[in-house]
Amino acid sequence: MAPLELSCPDFLFALKGFTTLENSTVKETIRSVWNDELTTEYIQNLVREAPTTSCEDLQDALSNFIKSIWIIHLDIKTKGNCLSPSFNVYARGALLEDVNIWPKIRRYLAIRKYTNEELGCGHTDTTPYQCGICHSKDHLRGMCPFPAVKGWKGPRRVPMSRNRRSCRATHTF
User: Which helix (H) or strand (E) holds 59?
Assistant: First the structure.
């Protein structure tokens, strides 16, 4: 049975353009942006705009939300079998009880600049993929976890043909 209360999603955006495959360095770059003065001020503004009865709870929730970051590295490849690293960025959306806050904080974090002297400049994409199996926005069809579930009766992972000429055909799985 599904829960009656909806929670905010965990997936925030994909971060692309870095020259590394290391999760830890990308995560530290994101943490430095999320903990900088501008983000702190934005969070304080969100708290100030909230009803006074929930300010302290909202401050705690947003603080825990920012701390809950995790990333997943996707080995996306482009034409010529060249790696084009992509990092999906997540934070525990269930920590935010006010569903109106989640899109605001997501939009704000997605427009921030994620730069690092060693990694280069990353750019964000809030709807980077469209899985043809589960319709998720955080992975391609060939990376869908559902076909690996025991007893799965739905579509299977099917690698895209390299002979087809389409944008999706440039990705290998």
Answer: helix 55-67
